[in-house]
Structure to design on (347 residues):
């Protein structure tokens, strides 16, 4: 068992995940808000963003409960100043003040799945929550990068895009659906299967974030390891069903929270590093894209820069199995995008 000294050492070296680049770039400080900050994802995500040296102000917003979360997180001895805002304590000003001039807004607000539900079953409640929060972002921090975690991501990102358009502040370079957890899972499952060092593994995941729309590209995984067709099929299905695996294991107590907070903090950090001028920041993310004809939003590898999306990469060469996966997701992805756009347009 690790001694507490070893444990602390390992936590601080994970914290260096967030700080390796800072010797080369002049470090600026950024204002970051987490909306839904008292929730299962919001609390650990707030904690991880408090550990990020690029964050100077961390605003934690939820309907209720955020003053307690903020007081707790604020005692951690890193430089970010933490403040909690809630509708219950601050009324309408809570959200406004949480968002004022933010550089990055991370949104895990909304209800999670229970066993037997699809992500689309969350649309009824979460669509309105995301629309309302994005309207407030448009009014209070129109230049912020927005990281949308709330499900169904395939629809909530189009809702956010349309909402920002209606407010006259849409910048497609700054709106991201967070699909990092799919990448995290694909890397973990591939490394476990092939006995590889997990930290050195990369697996791109394209498409969207629900069932068959999640398409891991094991043909492009690095380091390369031989995989049989059956292994590829099993790894692909496990990645697509990763969220459902957690929902089933939690047996009615929600969906992935800790691994999502980790993934959300990694993606948030990538946005901040790019904003801070670090070169070569590339992440898979669901953005407005013309890589695949017929769908307006799609996840592939994206190079990030100071202003957000710098370059959207293509899918790369696909195997016949992957091409079939891409063809097979199109109608679901199209429908989910249209559903989001229609909702935001009030159609
Ligand atoms: N993108 C992904 O990969 C991914 C992964 C896991 C979960 N999720 C999604 O993230 C969302 C949150 O999951 P969770 O487990 O944290 O749920 P949770 O219920 O534990 O927390 C959600 C929080 O959002 C808050 N909230 C609701 N409406 C709000 C509003 N209008 N303003 C501010 N806060 C509001 C709630 O009060 C609650 O504290 C769900 O929709 C879930 O499906 C996405
Ligand atoms: O599966 C869910 O409902 C939550 C999330 O989208 C996940 O992939 O874990």
């Amino acid at each position: 068992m690790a001694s507490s000294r070893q444990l602390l050492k390992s936590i601080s070296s994970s914290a260096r995940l967030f700080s390796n680049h800072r010797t080369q770039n002049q470090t600026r400080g950024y204002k970051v808000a987490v909306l839904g900050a008292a929730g299962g994802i919001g609390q650990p995500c707030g904690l991880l963003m408090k550990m990020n040296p690029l964050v100077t102000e961390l605003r934690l917003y939820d309907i209720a409960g955020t003053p307690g979360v903020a007081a707790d997180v604020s005692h951690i001895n890193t430089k970010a100043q933490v403040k909690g805002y809630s509708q219950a304590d601050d009324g309408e000003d809570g959200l406004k003040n949480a968002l004022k001039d933010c550089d990055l807004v991370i949104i895990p607000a909304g209800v999670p799945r229970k066993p037997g539900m699809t992500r689309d079953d969350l649309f009824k409640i979460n669509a309105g929550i995301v629309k309302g929060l994005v309207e407030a972002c448009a009014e209070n921090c129109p230049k912020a990068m927005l990281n949308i975690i709330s499900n169904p991501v395939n629809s909530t990102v189009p809702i956010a895009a349309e909402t920002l358009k209606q407010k006259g502040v849409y910048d497609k370079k700054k709106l991201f659906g967070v699909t990092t957890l799919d990448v995290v899972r694909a890397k973990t499952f591939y490394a476990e299967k092939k006995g590889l060092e997990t930290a050195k593994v990369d697996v791109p995941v394209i498409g969207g974030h629900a069932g068959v729309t999640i398409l891991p590209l094991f043909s492009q995984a690095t380091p390369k390891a031989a995989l049989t067709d059956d292994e590829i099929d099993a790894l692909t299905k496990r990645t697509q069903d990763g969220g459902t695996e957690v929902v089933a294991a939690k047996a009615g107590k929600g969906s992935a929270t800790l691994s999502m907070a980790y993934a959300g903090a990694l993606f948030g950090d990538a946005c901040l590093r790019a904003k801070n001028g670090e070169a070569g920041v590339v992440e898979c993310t669901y953005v407005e894209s013309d890589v695949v004809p017929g769908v307006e939003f799609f996840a592939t590898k994206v190079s990030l820069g100071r202003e957000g999306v710098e370059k959207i990469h293509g899918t790369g060469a696909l195997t016949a199995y992957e091409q079939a996966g891409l063809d097979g997701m199109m109608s679901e992805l199209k429908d989910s995008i249209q559903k989001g756009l229609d909702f935001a347009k009030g159609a």
Summary: Residues 35-36, 38-42, 61-63, 108-113, 122, 126, 129, 132-133, 149-151, 153, 178, 181, 209, 254-257, 260 surround nicotinamide-adenine-dinucleotide (ligand 1) (CB under 6 Å). The two ends are 58 Å apart (CA to CA). The longest strand covers residues 297-305.
